[in-house]
Amino acid sequence: MYRVKKDRLTELFTSVSKVQDLFLPLRKCDQTNYGLWTPEETFDLDTLKTVKSAKDCFFPQSEVLYRCRKEDGKISIDPQQLCDRPFVVFGMRACDVKAVEVLDRVFLSDPVDSFYKARREHGTIVSMACHEPEETCFCRNFEIDPAAPGADVETWLTEDSLYWKPLTEKGEALTAAAEEFLEKTEDGDKTVEEEQTAIRGIVEKLPLSHLDLSRFKQENTMELFDSPLWEEMYKPCLACGTCTFVCPTCQCYDIRDFDAGKNGVQRYRCWDSCMYSDFTMMAHGNMRTSQMQRFRQRFMHKLVYYPANNDGLYSCVGCGRCVSKCPASLNIVKVIKKLGGEA
Amino acid sequence: MCNCTDTLIPQIGVITDIRTETPDVKTFRVVGRDGKKLFEHMPGQCAMVSVPGVGEAMFSITSSPTNTEFQEFSIKRCGSLTDYLHDMTVGEEITVRGPYGNAFPVETALKGQNLLFIAGGIGLAPLRSVINYVRDKRENYGTVDILYGSRSMDDLVQLKEIQEEWMNTPGVNVHLTIDREQEGWEGHVGFVPAYLKELEFSTDKTVLVCGPPIMIKFTLAGLIEMGFDKTQVYTTLELRMKCGVGKCGRCNIGSKYVCKDGPVFRCDEIDELPPEY
Predict the structure, then answer these.
(1) Which among B212, B243, B252 is the nearest to A255, CB-wise?
(2) What is the pLDDT of residue B3?
(3) Do B137 and B83 sit in the same domain of this protein?
(4) For residue B153, is it within any domain?
(5) Using one digit for the tens of pLDDT, what is the confidence trace for B178-219?
(6) Is residue B16 one of the residues assigned to a domain?
(7) Is residue B241 part of a domain?
(8) Which portions of chain A are predicted below pLDDT 50?
(9) Residue B34 at interface with chain A, using a CB cutoff of 8 Å
(10) What is the Cα–Cα distance from B117 to B120, expressed in whole angstroms?
(11) Beta pairing, strands B71-76 & B144-150
């Protein structure tokens, strides 16, 4: 266990950012979101949840895949350079860390997505415990422990110090690089244990910490799919897609072209949403013509289809962003409760 | 120097032949710049064809893998990319990536079987790959019946090949039909599912069906009525696709991704999926 005094964090970040890109929760325009930190930026380690998750660091909202040019009728393809620069994402909460595992199973399964893989290989994740979990948090249902957030290095922030514990080789390497700011501590374990006990105590008492997920199993697929409750639940949905964009595990994407004129055509991918009406539209029709069907798809995917393909791992980490951001007050918790038979 | 060879990065293909099949279907022959086949595939597999700046879409590969020279795509004009492709000329370049998806089980479940192919309209495209594969490896399969229907005689895709080659292959019976009476047509008139019943096939066949969803639906009902089991029937599903490798999420039905786990499904497998196709 190591410790760095809180007032030396800026120095630590400055030192790290000289050799690697450092992504931190940044305070900008009254919001906190992950961004590339430079000493001119204001970092914010107090806000529990960034508006968007740290998903962008590994699966950016938009990225160019390759550029095409056509000269004298000949097409040339220039693939985008893969990430080849090490970077650190600092401050990810346990839910967002778990979400990376959910994304890994999609992008690192055969055939591997090289763009994602390169970022995963070059990125070091420093997680941070959630000292003040909020009422919208429900990570406990997915066996996530916000008191031990995992990743390459896990950290705990107390009033005057940041406690730092490397867990992987990458974590050890970062620890070695930041050595001059980190002091070994004897009593650190005890302090962290106390913090952990306090956090776990809060989590147990959170209003959404004890959901019943037992009915969300592959063998119940058709029964859940055919439930009349979808028809009741979906109605307020505006199809805005906010839930999918703030979701740390949503990974659907679109591939589109940007015609940059003389600079050729950029073929890029960008986040997309199953909540949108044209998501499944084809020349011969659309298999999901109503918002009810699209609403159902999103939650069936997270709670039934994805787990069926991934050893029972849910594609929800209980971060609660959809709970707080949906303009129509719809969210996965309501779905779990209603379909799970609770309310 | 670039360090990326992702499956999303396409190859460059050259169009070496364009045949006008019907008023809205053309068949494009494609090879690499070196004049050779872009890749090896199996019957039923698909590939992403694209014109940079216009779009990219999944098409079934209609040529047989036994063809060692090129790949072919039969493409119906029905959107911005297909409109553009239809206006292209021989010698022009496109991009192709693939092959994607599974294939008809030509080397396993279909081997040694009597085969019945049922196609409607452009639905012949994926089946043509299997039909020509079976014709080229004739000794591996039993009897072959092909029931193919379209709106009119002008809408029958690959008519020349059907008449000149398929109809002259020993052990292959071709049954053509068009939806409505038409001057100059002396063959059968009527929808595919109705003609299927008239033909009274024996149920010792493995059936491969491809066509518009409505045709598949009634054809399948007809087959069941005739005594076929769903485990004897294969079809392909078609959904919107972007990545082709089960990651972009578009073609997800239940726990399956049609681009990766399909497009070929046995009909009893489809019954286990939520009905969103």
Answers:
(1) B243
(2) 59
(3) no
(4) yes
(5) 999 999 999 999 999 999 999 999 999 999 999 998 999 999
(6) yes
(7) no
(8) none
(9) no
(10) 10
(11) unpaired
Nearest CB partner across the interface for B4, out of A68, A75, A114:
A114
Percent of chain B scoring above 70 in pLDDT: 99
Count how many domains chain A has.
2
CATH code, B223: 3.40.50.80
A136 and A248 in a single domain? The answer is no
Q: Are A130 and A93 in contact (CB under 8 A)?
A: yes
Q: Which of A183, A205, A227 is the last residue of a domain?
A: A205
Distance CA(A123)–CA(A84), nearest Å, equals: 10
Tokens of A213: 């997920």
Q: Is residue B257 part of a domain?
A: no
Would an 8 Å CB–CB cutoff place B4 in contact with chain A?
yes
In terms of domains, do B90 and B158 share one?
A: no
Which is nearest to A90 in space by CA: A20, A160, A28, A142?
A20
Pair (A276, A327) in one structural domain: yes
- Number of separate domains in chain B: 2
Instruction: Give the range of the structural domain holding residue B126, as residue numbers without chain letter.
Output: 114-236
Residue B108 touches partner A, C-beta closer than 8 Å = no
Residues B56 and B132 reside in one and the same domain? no
Q: Are residues A12 and A130 in the same domain?
A: yes
B100: β partners: B46
Within 10 angstroms of residue B160's Cβ, the number of other Cβ atoms is 10
- For the stretch A82-110, pLDDT in tens is 999 999 999 999 999 999 999 999 999 99
Residue B231 shares a structural domain with residue B130:
yes
DSSP class of residue A301?
I
Check pLDDT > 60 for residue B2. Answer: no
Query: How many CB pairs below 8 A link A and B?
Result: 127
- Name chain B contacts of A265, Cβ cutoff 8 Å: 52-53
Say if the Cβ atoms of B254 and A305 lie within 8 Å. yes
Same domain as B218, residue B126: yes
> Does A77 sit within 8 Å of B10, measured CB to CB?
yes
- Looking at the structure, do residues A95 and A201 belong to the same domain, yes or no? yes
Same domain (yes/no): A42, A180: yes
Contacts of A65 in chain B (CB under 8 A): 6, 8-9
Judging contacts by C-beta atoms under 8 Å, the chain A residues touching residue B277 are 287
The half-sphere exposure of B224 on its side-chain side, counting CA atoms within 13 A, is 10
User: Is residue A223 a part of any domain in this protein?
Assistant: yes
| Interface membership of B68 toward A (CB under 8 Å) | no
User: Would residue A212 count as lying in a domain?
Assistant: no
Domain residue limits at A160: 2-64+78-205
The helix/strand/coil state of A285 is: strand
Looking at the fold, whether A280 and A166 belong to one and the same domain comes out as no
Whether A269 contacts A113, CB under 8 Å:
no
Q: Is B83 an 8 Å CB contact of chain A?
A: no
Q: Which two tokens stand for residue B112?
A: 């040694």
Query: How far is the C-alpha of B117 from the C-alpha of B234, rounded, in Å?
Result: 10
Render pLDDT for A236-291 as a digit per residue (tens, 0 to 9): 999 999 999 999 999 999 999 999 888 899 999 999 999 999 999 998 889 999 99
Which amino acid, A126? V
Positive or negative torsion for Cα A37, A43, A46, A47: negative
Tell whether A180 lies on the interface with B, counting CB pairs under 8 A. no
Confirm if A49 and A55 have CB atoms less than 8 A apart.
no
